[in-house]
Write a structure and sequence with these properties.
Bound molecules: flavin-adenine dinucleotide
Largest sheet: 6 strands, antiparallel
CATH class of the largest domain: Alpha Beta
Number of helices: 6
Low-confidence stretches: none
């Protein structure tokens, strides 16, 4: 019997929608857009599949809540079943998508938005939905081209946009893992801490924050698995 999240995902009702665009924005990293039918809250996810025989995978919405299309950001997982197929979709192709859901929600309070890899997606939705005030975005990636959406993040966030690059160096990038950057900081008081991306990053950063005196209820986490 399927219990917990996987059972819930398998039972997610999926609706047929149409792809409006698929753009490769970095090597093996894509933004997929579909026509939007439902309202959502910035930070929520949708279940996506291409057939009722393939269990839906979850993707954070990365578009703003007033935009006519709904976008997701994804990378191709080696040997993954769905992500490679999503990358081959073309405008006009059908796709199965659930209603938006989830409790990783942005709000007006001051916050650090911490992401690894494609985990930056929900913060783009929050930013494009008008929640960028008093936010610090800390994004970790391996290569200099890992900072998806940096062209739109930089003018909006300025010096509250920290890009931590673990395998390459370039002007404007912190040279090292985002966990090192967080460890070096004196944390501001009165802030929430959002963590989104790999389980490894989320667990490590959560432990660093707790070690620096952050309370558990100030930490919101979304783990991509
Ligand atoms: C809340 C949430 C939000 C998410 N948001 C995003 C997002 O915004 N963007 C994003 O890119 N991803 C996101 N993810 C991850 C996403 O849902 C998928 O897991 C991911 O895209 C992989 O899908 P896939 O079908 O290509 O790979 P899968 O087929 O699910 O495989 C994933 C990995 O597991 C391995 N694998 C598969 N089957 C087996 C097996 N039987 N034994 C051992 N290994 C196996 C594969 O080799 C592959 O490397 C999110 C996940 C969650 C839970």
């Amino acid at each position: 019997m399927d219990t917990g999240l996987s059972g819930f995902i398998k039972k997610l009702p999926l609706e047929r929608r149409l792809v409006t665009a698929v753009d490769e924005i970095a090597q093996d990293v894509f933004v997929l857009r579909i026509d939007r039918k439902h309202d959502f809250l910035p930070g929520q996810v949708v279940g996506v599949s291409l057939s009722h025989d393939i269990a839906a995978r979850l993707y954070s919405i990365c578009s703003g809540k007033e935009e006519p299309e709904l976008s997701i950001l994804f990378n191709i997982k080696p040997d993954g079943i769905l992500s490679g197929q999503l990358a081959k979709l073309k405008k006009g192709d059908p796709i199965l998508v659930s209603r938006p859901f989830g409790a990783f929600l942005g709000d007006e309070k001051p916050a650090w938005w911490i992401a690894s890899g494609t985990g930056v997606a929900p913060y783009r939705a929050m930013l494009r939905s008008g929640l960028g005030k008093d936010k610090v975005l800390i994004h970790g990636g391996r290569k200099a081209d890992s900072f998806y959406f940096q062209e739109e993040m930089l003018p909006l966030l300025g010096n509250t946009y920290i890009r931590c690059c673990s395998q390459e160096t370039a002007e404007g990038l912190y040279p090292g893992r985002l966990t090192n950057w967080v460890r070096e900081q004196t944390l501001p008081s009165g802030y929430q801490f959002y963590l989104c991306g790999s389980a490894e990053m989320v667990v490590e950063v959560r432990d660093i924050l707790i070690g620096k005196g952050v309370e558990l209820d100030q930490i919101m986490a979304e783990i991509y698995f």
